[in-house]
Design brief:
The protein has helices at about 1-45, 45-55, 60-75, 80-90, 95-110, 120-145, 155-175, 180-195, 195-245, 245-260, 265-285, 290-325, 330, 335-384. It has 14 helices and no strands. The relative contact order is 0.13. It is rod-shaped, with a radius of gyration of 38 Å. It is mainly alpha-helical and about 375 residues long.
């Protein structure tokens, strides 16, 4: 009687198992890649992962390339030689500083807090360069004036303007000679005081001008660098914070934070659903061979589908590259955009592929168990 009841229970559970299979097998096949994508996204949108992506794609180097082009094409200060100014700026902006700024900006964008971008490193480098300019600038100006050569530090217009002021100052001091140029003053001065007197006077004046130059220029530069540092830092941080508070930006990054915070819960949910579904199927088939095989099929097919989804990455990125290359307005940034997309997609598709490997392995294990159960049943039958 008990055997009869047991057989009836097995039949009922088997029928339930068949009905569940109709629902769970296709459900698992599509749930597994969807769960892999969800877990991949949730584990790839943390601030730490995004910062790691910035390092991996060497975004700092791309930004430096852009800065170099902008410096070469647009930066100009009327008083300074353009080549010297370009080298000055490029030497002051380092990869490490750009990397720190990018991570600070990323942190601000991710959290919504006001950034604290510092340009102290750049300002310190500029100050060091300006010390050299202060020390050697006047002699460079004097050489350009006397020899008619190109100044290493200053623009031709500034050299001309500077020495016009110096000449006017000297002429104003010796109005008694009633001349309008240094050449005429030299002639009359030497005639009055003796040959070579004006040359000695000019050397004396130049020493005085050089002392004044170093004192005034050094103080002026130091003050301007301090003021500029504070002003630029304020403008940069305000501009970034304004962008960070944009409603669309906040919607995206607030969503990313929520997804990342639920990463562990999501992983437990996905693995829990798969485990419960497999356990139900195996149980309904009374832990027999059929139960293990039926459970293994959706795991293996779902895993294969994960592998297929991860293989789409290559075609997707190729398509994106073609679109970027076809748009002249963004072609210049195509490499950067492509690298950003790769940095975002690689871990997601990698997680999908890994989840596929896990489910396929688990499916193969279930088939192995099915074979083992079958062998044990045969041995038991033979023994009986």
């Amino acid at each position: 009687m008990e055997n009869k009841k047991s057989n009836v229970a097995k039949i009922i559970f088997r029928v339930i198992g068949i009905l569940l299979s109709i629902v769970l097998i296709p459900g698992l096949i599509f749930f597994i890649p969807a769960g892999g994508v969800a877990m991949g996204i949730s584990s790839s949108v943390s601030q730490e992962r995004l910062e790691q992506m910035v390092d991996e794609m060497k975004l700092s180097e791309h930004v430096m390339e852009f800065v170099e082009k902008e410096v070469e094409n647009g930066i100009k200060v009327d008083e300074l030689n353009s080549d010297y100014l370009q080298n000055l700026v490029l030497d002051s902006i380092t990869i490490d500083w750009v990397d720190d700024v990018l991570k600070e900006v990323l942190g601000a964008v991710y959290s919504g807090n006001k950034p604290n971008v510092s340009i102290d490193a750049v300002a310190k480098s500029l100050s060091t360069e300006f010390e050299t300019l202060t020390k050697n600038g006047f002699r460079d100006l004097y050489s350009a004036w006397v020899n008619g050569t190109t100044s290493q530090y200053f623009s031709t217009e500034f050299v001309q303007s500077f020495w016009e002021n110096v000449e006017n100052e000297i002429l104003a001091e010796y109005t008694e000679f009633d001349v309008t140029s240094l050449g005429a003053l030299e002639e009359k001065y030497d005639e009055y005081y003796g040959a070579g007197a004006f040359s000695d006077l000019l050397d004396e004046k130049m020493e005085s001008f050089e002392d004044t130059w170093e004192e005034e220029f050094s103080a002026e530069i130091a003050e301007e660098v301090d003021e500029l540092t504070a002003e630029v830092e304020q403008e940069i941080n305000d501009a970034i914070y304004e962008a960070v508070q944009d409603s669309d930006v906040r919607m995206v990054f607030d969503s990313l934070q929520e997804v990342n915070e639920k990463n562990n819960t999501l992983r437990l949910l996905v693995y829990g659903v798969v485990f419960v579904a497999v356990l139900l199927l195996v149980s309904c088939f009374w832990f027999g061979t059929a139960g293990f095989v039926v459970s293994a099929i959706p795991l293996i097919l779902g895993g294969i589908l994960c592998k297929f989804v991860s293989g789409v990455e290559k075609f997707l990125l190729t398509y994106v590259d073609e679109i970027l290359a076809a748009e002249p307005e963004i072609a210049e940034f195509g490499t950067v955009v492509g690298d950003v997309l790769r940095g975002l997609l690689n871990p997601i598709f990698g997680a999908v592929s890994m989840f596929g490997t896990i489910t396929i392995s688990f499916g193969v294990l279930l088939i192995g168990l099915a074979i083992l159960v079958g062998v044990l049943k045969k041995k038991r039958t033979v023994t009986e």
